[in-house]
Design a protein that fits this description.
74 residues
């Protein structure tokens, strides 16, 4: 079973549905048992919902590209 650090390392991939079915299943099994990690996921999902609700501007392609480069190098 995954430990909390492994779950947090894969948190955004889980939320973005970018994990394999097996990895998603393993992470979900951990979340079912670990309230702390579950709370992290719930918070991130709620934050994303709120940001989507509050933003109505589209991001310029050049900004998206810069953000993507930063994230890839992070």
């Amino acid at each position: 079973m995954l430990d909390c650090q492994a779950v947090l390392d894969q948190l955004f991939d889980y939320i973005d549905a970018e994990l394999s079915e097996e990895a998603r299943r393993d992470l979900k099994a951990h979340l079912d048992l670990c309230r702390n990690c579950y709370d992290h996921v719930e918070f991130e999902q709620m934050l994303r919902r709120k940001l989507r609700e509050k933003t109505s501007h589209t991001c310029p392609a050049s900004l998206k590209k810069r953000i993507q480069i930063i994230l890839e190098n992070f």
